[in-house]
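Subject: Predicted fold for L-ectoine synthase, 129 residues

User T.R. writes:
Posting the sequence so we have a shared reference for the thread.
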Amino acid sequence: MKVIKLEDLLGTEREVDDGNWVSRRFIMKDDNMGYSVNDTIIRAGTETHIWYQNHLETVYCIEGDGEIETLSDNKVYQLEPGVLYALDKNDEHMLRGGSKDMRMVCVFNPPLSGREVHDENGVYPADLD
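User M.O. replies:
I've generated the structure tokens; pasting them so everyone works from the same file.
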């Protein structure tokens, strides 16, 4: 069994800061669970282009506010605590932080190795290992 405290991830290689967001990576590929779990803060007032061509992601908002826009149809969905979205079609999207930082629990399949950052197209590489 694994028990992981957020405070133990802070300032380690499992905390990745991209400027618009900071991701604390609880479960990663090397944990051999078949998925990864991140606690991610989307900073207020930011906009991030994301297109997970190699991963499926489910995201649950637990704090703050913002919005997600799917670029294939320009639909905008408001995000607030209690809202979950699933990028089940590798949806290209814009993620926007609202008036305050937004905290999200993110699950990826296949799992992240932990070193991923978005490329110029908003994509994580298929596998860094």
